[in-house]
Amino acid sequence: xxxxxxxxxxxxxxxxxxxxxxxxxxxxxxxxxxxxxxxxxxxxxxxxxxxxxxxxxxxxxxxxxxxxxxxxxxxxxxxxxxxxxxxxxxxxxxxxxxxxxxxxxxxxxxx
Length: 111
What we know:
By secondary structure, the chain is mainly α. It has one domain. Helices cover 52% and strands 0% of the residues. The protein has 7 helices and no strands. The radius of gyration is 17 Å and the shape is globular. The termini are far apart. The mean pLDDT is 87.
């Protein structure tokens, strides 16, 4: 069985009776995102916040503050989500009170 067919079968087995797809808990999305970002940071420097914005991804309010600081690219390439209180709230609460534009943890909330 290929990975694609396995996940298709798994997906069809988890659909709700009314034909609606089950929603992934926002806490799980936040924890998976945090783990992926931490793993990516271990393998080498992340793209700087300036580079992220240049590639078309909008920055959250905290990343924007770092971007305008007069610091080097090494500092701008740190994992700022790791120390953000939005990450902590999103990993601990379903429907966490996070409303910042362009924050991935805010976007994970099932509202």
